[in-house]
Design brief:
The chain folds into 2 domains: about 290 residues, no CATH class; about 55 residues. About 70% of the residues lie in helices and about 0% in strands. The chain contains 18 helices and no strands. The radius of gyration is 21 Å and the shape is globular.
Length: about 350
């Protein structure tokens, strides 16, 4: 499928990189970022082998996939664990964000970050070749199982996007692919065993931790020790974003989200931050800040996978990660402050 999707991007190295990023971002919106990166790196490695050894554009190609996976994961509530944590935490407060509304809110940020990342990679690691013939073997799979998967995938996405119209929660819709793919044997026992159960349990544990912190008053006690009411609303949002971003670069973004989202919820429900504090905007912004932390190989699994190719130096990843992170925080802050209030 990937080879088919990349064909329209022609022979220019920069356009091939853009194609890789777009395909990766789309896949990571509905798949695990780790699985998407692992799959796409099998495409990148043979492409980079066709470039001259001294061509630094290989670094751009190797970085394009994890960046696009991390950014693309922001697109949907199921794209990354932090998104799911935000949705679950808001649901605990009786606030529901439909699948389509989430996409509408974050898509401008995703598009801007993908374009910024693409330009940054091209500027820092320009290709020496003006044209490049993409040699990828592959064709569109038309087997019975593949067609079954396409139909179930399309139906699931349509139901997610139209949640506001039919009223079925996205969490319930998620049972459709689980059941249908298992019954039709598209998913085997081995596939189910290989699911990232550790991540699922981490998310569940984080949600439980957040509920416990709220019910015991611990979250309220922690946040009440800071004079949040003295911070302007814009500064409050920025502080949350910066803390989430910095922590996620060194910790799992899932762990960071499980720690910070309950604090944001506590501030919003306790009234400590004063009037004008928007719980939905703050939580989504924190989730985005967690997702754009990609400065180090340890920041996200996609980064670690890309680093294992041997085409990257840590300094290259830090350079690009800082640029994307800072621009992401600024763009996210501006949109959260001046656009989202009119959409929520």
């Amino acid at each position: 499928m990937t080879s088919v999707l990349l064909k329209p991007f022609g022979k220019k190295p920069m356009y091939i990189a853009l194609g890789l990023m777009l395909v990766t971002a789309i896949l990571s919106a509905f798949m695990s970022n780790t699985a998407t990166t692992a799959m796409m790196m099998t495409v990148v490695i043979p492409i980079t082998a066709q470039f001259p050894p001294e061509d630094r554009f290989k670094t751009a190609l190797a970085l394009s996939v994890p960046i696009a996976a991390n950014v693309g994961g922001i697109s949907t509530p199921i794209g990354t664990p932090p998104n799911a944590i935000v949705i679950a935490a808001l649901n605990q407060q009786g606030i529901s964000i439909p699948f389509g509304e989430w996409m509408l809110l974050v898509m401008p940020i995703v598009i801007i970050l993908l374009l910024v990342s693409w330009f940054t990679l091209g500027y820092l690691f320009p290709p020496t070749l003006s044209e490049f013939k993409l040699k990828l073997e592959g064709k569109f799979n038309t087997s019975a199982k593949a067609i079954t998967l396409y139909v179930i995938f399309a139906l699931t996405v349509i139901l997610w996007i139209t949640e506001a119209q039919h009223g079925i929660p996205s969490s319930m819709v998620a049972f459709l692919p689980i059941t249908a793919l298992t019954v039709t044997s598209v998913l085997t026992k081995e596939d189910i065993r290989n699911l990232p159960w550790d991540v699922l349990w981490l998310v569940a544990g984080g949600i439980a931790l957040g509920v416990a912190m709220d019910n015991t008053g611990l979250a309220t006690w922690i946040v009440s020790s800071i004079s949040w009411e003295t911070l302007p609303k814009l500064m409050l949002l920025l502080v949350f974003g910066l803390v989430a971003y910095m922590m996620s670069n060194f910790l799992s973004n899932t762990v960071t989200a499980t720690l910070i989202i309950p604090l944001a919820i506590s501030i919003g429900t306790s009234g400590i931050a004063g009037e004008g504090f928007n719980l939905i905007i703050t939580c989504i912004f924190v989730g985005i800040a967690c997702n754009i932390a990609m400065m180090l190989p340890i920041s996200t699994p996609p980064n670690a996978i890309a680093m294992s190719t041997g085409f990257l130096k840590t300094s290259d990843m830090v350079k690009v990660g800082i640029i994307v992170g800072i621009i992401g925080l600024v763009v996210g802050l501006l949109i959260a402050t001046f656009v989202w209030p009119f959409m929520i």
